[in-house]
Specification:
Layout lengths: L1 H29 L25 E2 L25 E6 L2 E6 L11 H4 L15 E2 L25 E10 L5 E12 L3 E11 L4 E14 L2 E11 L5 E6 L7 E4 L2 E6 L5 E2 L3 H11 L8 E7 L2 E17 L2 E10 L9 E7 L5 E8 L5 E11 L3
Length: 370
Amino acid sequence: MLLFCVATAVLHGLALDWAASRLAASATVDAPPSLVAAQVRLTLPPRTASMPLADVVALPPEAPDAPAVPLAPRQRTAPPPVPATAATGGAITPVAADLPPPALALDAADLAPAAPTPAADATPAAQVAAAPGAAPAPAPQGGRRYKVQLPPSATFEMDVARVDADGTKWTGAAAMAWHTDGSTYRSSVEAGVSLLVTRLNLLVLRSEGTIDDYGIAPDRAAEKRARRAETATHFNRSGERAGTISFSASDRSFPLLAGAQDKATVPFQLAGIGRADINQFGGDIDIQVGEDKAASLFRFQLVGEEELNTRMGKLVTWHLTRPPMPGTYSSRLDIWLAPGMQWYPVQIRNTEASGALTTQTVSHIKITGQ
């Protein structure tokens, strides 16, 4: 009996030990890992004043059978390097900047009276509207050049919230895609709102082209709005209309400046500017944008750092805005970039002249490239 009791106690102990080890192993396997999420906060660059923005006006009507003259980027003399800072490994370390200080596409030399130039450089292909009484400025055939490092390919799911001018509210979803192999790119946006039993697409954008020294270089962009026919914008870099931006919905054309973008590529061009050198946001960012029936210079200004509440959690962002410009465009465009997430655009808001407001906020990002 004594041996039997001892054997029983030993077997119970072994059984309990085995069960405890199995439970511990199961808990170790099934327990989610402990993660600590952190977002690096970058120091905002000091503000640099910019000169007044001058828009690029349409080209005069082309004469029949007149050959187009391609535009050549204007040669500029780079100023001496200035101190700057860049983010490396979560810290801010001094570096030498090889870019001119953030400024307009026109510098002081551009505002001086034009000197006699060879006939090839005197074509009226690019004209800039000057202030009344000011000396005529030479044509800015080359746009402001920024250092650009484009983000990797990715797809984005976004929540759409729209408030009409009369206060009516709508909700919906948007899908945005960015793909590049380093030499070419494709970009698209499809945004819509949900109705009772269907979905209404508010906007569909598609863009494709190449990558050059100025960043994204669109060849063709298409735009389709609700209840409107699709329109196309052509960035003519070769052929008979080389050096111009033309439109399927208009007979007008505009000079094609270096660094020109379309609606679908602007957020990713801004992301590339931030990834390359955050100090470029210390001054206004001027980008020529071709859209629908016209091309104009968009001036983006850094508002500051903001935290966004999204379905992906709180995101630290840099808020850029393009205020309305009387006589050119009447809407306001706001873009929020996330420095800790490849500088991707994580929120885009368009405020129309009527007061209608459409906001797209990221809900999911899938990186598909390196």
